[in-house]
Specification:
globular; 143 residues; 4 helices
Length: 143
């Protein structure tokens, strides 16, 4: 797949490194401002832990009910591509994902894919072997 460097607007909001791949992917794929996505996710991250230092900059647990409900409220639909024990069926490579704006779940990472082009701060493909666990797609597109 083609790769396009894109931080989703993070460099405007923050300096340095962070574990904000979910925030970046949602911002890039949805077109929402990074700071808006960051604020919404950080509120939820803080509510699930006692620590007030927890924020979207330190990682988001995407398997939580609140995250799924938030994504659905924004108009995104989840499509799983792998089941427990099924092995990898879909990889991060040309022709294996649908066209459109996607937020793709990988092992310990999320990235945005727009019309077959990866938008992220580094190329996560691993030579086309990276397994896709599932993806969020906007709206209700036909399969």
């Amino acid at each position: 797949m083609k790769f396009q460097w894109n931080d989703g607007g993070r460099s405007v909001a923050f300096k340095g490194k962070s574990g904000d791949c979910v925030t970046r992917a949602v911002s890039i794929a949805s077109g929402l401002p990074y700071s808006e996505v960051y604020a919404a996710l950080s509120i939820q991250c803080r509510s699930e832990r006692a620590s007030t230092k927890r924020s979207a900059r330190n990682g988001v647990h995407t398997k939580r009910k609140w995250f799924k409900a938030w994504m659905h409220a924004l108009g995104w639909r989840w499509t799983p591509t792998m089941q427990i024990g099924s092995g990898c069926k879909v990889h991060l490579r040309d022709g294996e994902l649908p066209q459109g704006r996607l937020i793709v779940s990988l092992s310990k990472h999320y990235c945005a894919v727009i019309d077959g082009v990866i938008h992220d701060t580094s190329d996560p493909q691993r030579g086309g072997t990276r397994c896709v666990y599932g993806y969020w797609q906007f709206g209700n597109p036909t399969p």
